[in-house]
Design a protein that fits this description.
Bound molecules: MU-OXO-diiron
Number of domains: 2
Number of helices: 12
Radius of gyration: 24 Å
Largest sheet: 7 strands, mixed
Number of strands: 22
Shape: elongated
Distance between the termini: 52 Å
């Protein structure tokens, strides 16, 4: 059943406790997720977004317990991605003529996904839809935050920003509001979401937030499409986004490595020792790439001022796990971070150079040409790794 977020606005989404992977296998959701849909009952009845399609029938069944579907005047599709639009085919089977408001790109995307010619109405930033009782929905295009079609919808009178993916997080909870959940869990899921999904769009995030703030409208609630509704100090998450979007760095160095016979692992540990020797304040974290969750690693990279990436040379290249995380790192276009490479080798030893080149093309500021050790590190190599860590601490 729905849950009231205000007298006239009801959450009618789905809490997905079982979800452990999202975007296929691309995003880990250790704490599940929610697909938030909202029903507004004013002079007009409006549904904002739906749910992922495995839950479409359940969603529409529950919605029918809230409202006679034929009494829904407008559907708002803030974003065409399947986790929010997946309930549309089932819903529109019942109400095929009901208008769907979305951006022009939203129409293209929805048609691309579902091949249906529904009653689309395209909207642009600043367009308003009167919903009666002196209230309106005002649309704000959020192009590339994070898809070309994304938009947010602001409800006047109740001052609710339905922000869709922005300010969201993958976090299953039966408690609807930010002040009712564990704050550390919540903020971890928020920064993980930002790091893994929004990092490449940070310049746009800053611009869009400034644009919304310049409207100078009151915001009583931010209701995203995943996770909790921000009702306690709702703009706290907006302030976080402004910090995260500005080349975010903590006093942290993250060391990522893969290893076959522990040689590159020993290098990682000795480099960490060298960093700590020179800088007692810096947080140093080590992750074995093959044994760690890649989205958690990305979150740690996001928080870091520098990263070190290590792999043994395999053939003439690097381990597939290291290549996988480097591909991910390149796509996220981190800015303002330093990096270097390391690794063991047995004969030809191209791995370090390959990682170095990959880090360079991914926009990292290289601290040096990297360090490599022949076979398993001996005492001389261990001393070199510690000295390398000393140098990294001085440069990072
Ligand atoms: Fe939650 Fe971009 O979909």
């Amino acid at each position: 059943m729905g849950k009231r977020i205000k007298a006239n606005v009801t959450w009618v989404g789905k809490v997905d406790w079982e979800l452990k992977k999202f975007h296929g296998n691309e995003y880990s959701t250790h704490r599940g997720s929610t697909y938030n849909s909202y029903l507004i009952r004013e002079g007009k009845n409006v549904l904002i977004d739906t749910v992922w399609n495995p839950f479409a029938v359940e969603f529409v069944d529950n919605l029918q317990k809230e409202i006679d579907l034929s009494k829904i005047d407008y559907v708002i599709a803030n974003h065409a991605e399947i986790d929010h639009s997946g309930g549309l085919p089932e819903l529109m089977r019942h109400i095929p003529d009901t208008p769907i408001y979305c951006t022009e790109n939203g129409i293209k995307s929805l048609k691309g996904h579902y091949h249906q010619d529904w009653n689309f109405r395209s909207v642009k930033t600043g367009d308003a839809l009167d919903i009666g009782n002196g209230k309106a929905l005002v649309f704000v295009e959020m192009r590339m935050l994070h898809w070309p079609d994304s938009m947010a919808t602001y409800m006047t009178g109740d001052n609710i920003l339905f922000s869709n993916d922005a300010f969201g997080h993958h976090y299953a909870t039966e408690r609807l509001f930010n002040d009712l959940v564990d704050q550390d869990e919540l903020m971890y899921e928020c920064i993980k979401y930002y790091a893994n999904i929004l990092t490449p769009f940070s310049p746009l995030v800053l611009k869009k937030i400034q644009e919304v703030l310049s409207l100078n409208v009151p915001i009583d609630m931010i209701a995203p499409s995943h996770g909790i509704v921000w009702r306690d100090k709702p703009t706290q998450i907006v302030e976080k986004y402004m910090v995260w979007a500005d080349n975010y760095r903590e006093n942290q160095i993250t060391i990522l490595y893969d290893t076959m016979w522990n040689g590159t692992k020993i290098m990682a540990e000795k480099i960490a020792k060298g960093i700590r020797e020179k800088n007692k304040d810096v947080t140093v974290k080590l992750y074995n790439i093959a044994k760690s969750d890649k989205n958690d690693i990305i979150t740690e990279i996001f928080k870091s001022k520098a990263i070190l990436v290590g792999s043994p040379t395999i053939g003439k290249g690097i381990s597939s796990g290291t290549a996988g995380i480097l591909e991910e790192i390149e796509g996220l276009r981190f800015k303002g971070k330093k990096a270097a490479a390391f690794g063991c080798y047995g004969w030809s030893g191209e791995g370090v150079q390959k990682i170095t080149e990959w880090l360079k093309k991914s926009g990292f500021d290289l601290m040096n040409d990297g360090i490599k050790c022949l076979w398993n590190p001996d005492q001389e190599s261990i001393d070199r790794c510690v000295a390398f860590g000393n140098d990294v601490a001085a440069q990072a």
